[in-house]
Amino acid sequence: MKQFESFTLDTGNECLWDSGTRIALAPKPFAVLRYLVENAGRLVSHDELLDALWPDIYVQPQVLRTYMLELRKVLGDDPRNPRFIRSVPKRGYCFIACVAEDLAPRAAAVNHRQEKTTSTAGLVGRERELARLCAAMHEAAAGKRQIVFLTGEAGIGKTALLDAFRSQLDTEFAVAVGQCIPGFARQEYYPLADALRQLQPSDTAASVFNGLLPGAARAAGELCAAVEDLARQKPLALLLEDLQWTDEATLHLLSALARRQGKLHLLVVATLAPQTGGSAEAIRALVHDLRIRRLCAELSLPRLGKQELTAMLHARLEASQLPEELHACVFRNSEGNPRFALTVLDHLLAEGLLARAPGDGAWELRGLPQDLEELTPRELARSLELEIERLPEREQRVLEAASIPTVAFPAWMVAAALDEDLVATEEVCDRIARRMSFVQRAGEEELPGGTRSAFYAFSHALYREVLYQRQSPARRALRHARVARCLREIFRGREALIALDAAWHHEAAGEWKEAIAMLRIAALRAVELRAYGEAAELEVRIARIGTHIPAAPAQTSGNDGLVWPAAEDTDVPYSAHMKA
Q1: Can you tell me the distance from the alpha carbon of 346 to that of 369, in angstroms, rounded to the nearest whole number?
Q2: Is residue 134 domain-shared with residue 172, that is, in the same domain?
Q3: Confidence band, pLDDT 50/70/90 cuts, at residue 146
Q4: pLDDT tops 60 at residue 112
Q5: DSSP conformational letter for 187
Q6: CA atoms of 228 and 253, how far apart (whole Å)
């Protein structure tokens, strides 16, 4: 075992420990960390790392960035001021922490029952899904082959559930874990071959695995037979992560394993997130076909409720009582997504906004950011950006424009922001909603004049925030201005209905005079409805926006005989009109 600071790398059990607490790491991130630690103090080039971990397979260097993000998050390492992994631009990585041998049998002292309890203690809100996986394990142990797909949006907890289930697997099972990887030229059957090589199979089976080549005509039949031979010798659990990035040959093989008849001690559990890769349609077709034939099970992970999220926070902070404002803040900004909840929590801790009080040690809040951007940790934002960057350029542009309104957006507004055709834009939005988990179609709306437009929503405000911030200020301003003009054109003669929305877009575009004009219309409507408090708030807002305008021309008289400020004037209050 290797020791660095508070961490221990347990190479025998392939896990990482932090001050006695076991940290779950997927096989490939662990392998990357292990290689860096074993070569500490020297530069490990991209090519060396790829050749060591993916022999005989072409993998683009950018795939390492995803694993480095995960490792830095686990280690609490800041890439700008690293303590463990230093990036050498365009060359590779260097593990810079001091590494020592740790002979303490930490992992060996933990028996199987204790390890099960530890691995599932932090799993909240997934008891039903874990029980169903355990039931599938017992079915497979009895000789009834099982194929289970764990589905859900990014960050919903698929990997955490799979790790917890792995600790629950009976010791009679041989366990093989395969990782599907985005961003490289795929080799057929790679995730299965990668997983099965871990088992050190018989010479016959090994020759099949090691002899697989892309396009091999008889590879599917041979590999399928080899998997079944292994499962007859000993119950076999194949755990495949991120199946959305796999090749179609692997999908055909999984289909064959599910459809073949006969008693077999085989359990396949694969995690799957919606995506836009080349095999997306094939994956959907496979899962749908196997489900209607009752040859597989699909466990779709929902977001956590307030009660479950509260329990997760208590478990993470090891506290029986927490500030109510913390629960509200984390739930509001995560919307029940466990990954977002934990990253927001970690961000509050790192910034010192959540800390233990002196004396009794109770957790207390020392202020909360008001802007969502301030609550978006850099690592999470970069992770979301990587997911977005995998999309075609056209879809990225449409998503950026979709972030101009709010979390919910109509297709006509996206088309207006891009100054493009509505029909073509709506088709792209539909395509994105069908394939990506973070955009859903929410219905239709009818505009004045009878035009109909589809309506969509981001599944989480953080996606909208990342897409909004990745645009240059000038581009955001231009798109806000286009939306404001389109709103006013569509609702010409009925501007009071959209005055506040138009004012917000004008303000975001830096069009101060136009924003004030729209706010005046909104204030007049508020007075007509006797909403005097709202009108007063709008008066304050107009005054604030007016500070951006250097001059204040003379007043003009309104149609109602009362004196109103001109478009450039912001100093005359609405109080006289309100009193009238």
Answers
A1: 14
A2: yes
A3: very high
A4: no
A5: P
A6: 12
- 240 with 135, same domain? yes
Phi, then psi, of 322 in degrees rounded to 5:
-135, 155
Angle between the 324-334 and 306-317 helix axes, to the nearest 10 degrees? 120
Predicted confidence (pLDDT) per residue in 456-513, tens digit: 988 777 788 889 988 999 999 999 999 999 999 999 888 888 999 999 999 999 999 9
Tokens standing for residue 183 = 């961003």
Q: Report the candidate in 232, 164, 160, 223 with the shortest Cα–Cα distance to residue 195.
A: 223
Are 30 and 2 in contact by the 8 Å Cβ rule? The answer is no
Q: Is 100 left (phi over 0), alpha (psi -120 to 50) or beta?
A: beta
In the three-class reduction of DSSP (H, G, I as helix; E, B as strand; rest coil), residue 468 is classed as helix
Max intra-chain CA distance, the chain = 97
Domain-embedded: residue 522: yes
Q: Which of 375, 397, 420 is the last residue of a domain?
A: 375
The answer as to whether 282 is a domain residue is yes
In a domain, 265, yes or no: yes
Measured at the CA of 534, the angle between CA 557 and CA 458, to 5 degrees, comes to 120
Residues 162 and 248 in one domain: yes
> What is the span of the domain harbouring residue 524?
497-580
**Alpha-carbon span 232 to 236, nearest angstrom:** 8
Q: What is the pLDDT of residue 506?
A: 95
DSSP β-ladder status, 2-4 and 100-101: antiparallel
Closest CA to 332 of 356, 358, 303: 303
Tell me which of 255, 279, 300 is where a domain ends: 300
Strand, coil or helix: 554 = coil
b/e sequence 252-285, b meaning 16+ C-beta within 10 Å: bbbbbbbeeeeebbbbbbbbbbbbbbebeebbee
- Whether the per-residue pLDDT at 113 is higher than 60: the answer is no
- The domain total for the chain is 4
Please, which contacts does 174-177 make with residues 24 or more away whose CB atoms are closer than 8 Å?
174/199, 174/230, 174/234, 174/235, 174/236, 174/237, 175/237, 175/239, 176/236, 176/237, 176/238, 176/239, 177/26, 177/27, 177/239, 177/240, 177/241
Query: What letter represents residue 289's amino acid?
Result: D
Helix-helix angle 338-350:324-334, to 10 degrees: 130
Q: CB under 8 Å, gap of 24 or more: what pairs does 123-127 form?
A: 123/160, 123/161, 123/164, 124/304, 124/308, 124/309, 124/311, 124/312, 124/315, 124/338, 125/304, 125/305, 125/308, 125/309, 125/311, 125/312, 125/338, 126/157, 126/160, 126/161, 126/164, 126/301
Distance CA 574, CA 267 (A): 71
Question: Both tokens of residue 508?
Answer: 């975001």
